[in-house]
Specification:
Elements lengths: L15 H13 L3 H12 L4 H10 L4 E2 H8 L3 H13 L3 E6 L2 E6 L4
Antiparallel strand pairs: 1-3, 2-3
Length: 108
């Protein structure tokens, strides 16, 4: 007797083309570790404050003080968000005298 899946559970079809496509995707796609890295990377864009900072930096490099004034949060909060984005290679920093200027890394 054929075992049935619980009601509402989709069953894979028996198409050889679909099985081949699935096998090819599994062999050529990212590894589980790469999926984890991509998930972490895209989580950067799930925070509204980081998105605002990214949009500000899209206009050019800025110091933390200008970012704080535009975003309306403390210097430590902005610095924390910039540190997260630096670790993920979204922004870079350069020192100019006593100020640190931040800009987006060109990923293209």
């Amino acid at each position: 007797m054929k075992k049935h899946a619980p009601f509402g559970t989709p069953q894979p079809c028996e198409s050889p083309e679909h099985a081949g496509a699935l096998k090819q995707a599994a062999e050529n796609g990212p590894t589980p570790d790469e999926y984890a890295d991509m998930s972490l990377f895209f989580s950067i864009f799930a925070d509204g404050t980081r998105l605002l900072i990214i949009s500000l930096l899209a206009g050019g490099e800025l110091c933390v003080g200008h970012i704080c004034a535009a975003v309306g949060i403390s210097q430590s909060a902005v610095s924390h968000q910039l540190a997260v984005m630096r670790r993920m290679n979204i922004v870079k920093a350069r020192r100019e005298g006593r100020q640190v200027l931040y800009s987006l890394i060109n990923l293209l």
